[in-house]
Amino acid sequence: MRARDGLIEATVGLLRRHGVAGTGLTAITEASGRSRRTIYLNFPQGKAQLVEAATRAAGQFMADVIAALPLEDPAAAIRRFGALWETTLIESRFLSGCPIVAAALGRAEAPEAADAAGDAFRQWIETLTDSLVEHSAMEPRRARAVATTMVATVEGAIIMSAATRSVEPLHQALSVLEELVAPDDRSVTPRTSV
Question: DNA-binding residues per UniProt (predicted)?
């Protein structure tokens, strides 16, 4: 793995667990196995530039995940996406959240990373909007509102699940989202905790 990629990967992992403020250069060097010199050779502006690059990489990774979901069936896509986050939360013992949210909340320390987070959210919403228009015959304006609601709801549910150390908020949010995208003639069975 190239040094730059290793630094980005380590930084994404730290952002997920500690946020921007809790992700210092010492932690990055320890997590990546790279020196400070390597950080500055690859990211001359230091931590802020590295956090921005990590945010962009994480945003693109999640955009690729979203694009790979079965978007022709929005309810199935929601279930699969929810399962990915449930696994992440449980396997990390509720310590890992979304690095995009971490970057968005770190504007005071890394404004470019917060801007990158905004770009990621817009990209996800655009992908979901296009899919909803194509596969569920929603009008574009309604599809955009539903896509925005989906992203905001899932992100909020991830935060609440981490805070409560329970996947119940995620389950409840996903259940409501499934109802939101389900055709009128279908009912959705509410989720229950594992």
Answer: 24-43
Tell me how far the alpha carbon of residue 80 is from its chain's centroid. 14
CA distances (Å), origin 56, targets 4, 62, 133: 13, 10, 26
Phi and psi at residue 41, in whole multiples of 5°?
Answer: -70, -35
pLDDT digits (tens, 9 = 90+) for 6-61: 999 999 999 999 999 999 999 999 999 999 999 999 999 999 999 999 999 999 99
- The span from the CA of 80 to the CA of 88, in Å, is 13
pTM of the predicted structure, to 2 decimals: 0.90
DSSP 191: P
- Do residues 134 and 70 make contact, with C-beta atoms less than 8 angstroms apart? no
Considering all CA atoms of the chain, what is the largest pairwise distance in Å, rounded to the nearest integer?
61
Residue 64 lies in a domain: yes
Q: How many domains does the chain have?
A: 1
Which range marks the domain in which residue 135 is found?
Answer: 54-181
Q: Does a structural domain hold residue 35?
A: no
119-162 per-position pLDDT tens digit: 999 999 999 999 999 988 889 999 999 999 999 999 999 999 99
The reply to whether 145 falls in a domain is yes
Q: Measure the CA–CA gap between 66 and 87, rounded to whole angstroms.
A: 16
